[in-house]
């Protein structure tokens, strides 16, 4: 998901200039899922025993197993996909609402690919203005290096990645 333009400054450093949708990285969900799996394994959910007597009990057990297999193999994945799609639509519309209606600023950043400490970022309100600011930032870096300010937007700090 690395988009933007790569340009070279007069001192020879390579820079990636882009407009970002997200201000921070995505959350690390694998830690919380591992924690939840440990709790489910420790709960003793499958410790009980089932006793059925005779042929009727066997038939009931086979039907119950078939229903459980159908639910686990067919219905749960369908419900999971439907919930994921609903969540994706809600997240997208809330982000779009924040950017368009509430005028949340876009982050226009220039990342030094050779030395990450020299990276700069600016908060710019409006999609078109952020595009213009990205063009101005790219032109300024190509001509004289990273600027301290732009005509549109305010300087901000880049969030540090959490790996």
Explain what the structure shows.
Strands 1-2-3-4-5 form a 5-stranded antiparallel sheet, with helices on one face. Among the domains are: about 55-105; about 105-163, no CATH class. It has helices at about 30-40, 55-100, 125-145, and strands at about 5-10, 15-20, 105-110, 120-125, 155. The model is unreliable at about 45-50 (pLDDT under 50). It is of the alpha+beta class. Strand 1 and strand 2 (about 15-20) form a beta hairpin. It is elongated.
List keywords for this structure.
163 residues, 16% strand, five-stranded antiparallel sheet, 5 strands, single chain, alpha+beta
Q: Would you identify the regions where 5 or more consecutive residues have pLDDT less than 50?
A: 45-49
SSE sequence, one letter per element: EEHHEEHE
Tell me about the biggest sheet? 5 strands, antiparallel
Strand order of the largest sheet: 1-2-3-4-5
N-end to C-end Cα span: 17 Å
Structural class: alpha+beta
By DSSP (H or I, 4+ residues per run), the number of helices equals: 3
Number of distinct beta strands:
5
**What proportion of the residues is helical, as a percent range?**
40-55%
Arithmetic mean of pLDDT: 80
Give the overall shape, derived from the CA principal axes.
elongated
Oligomerization? single chain
Radius of gyration using CA atoms only: 27 Å
Strand proportion: 15-25%
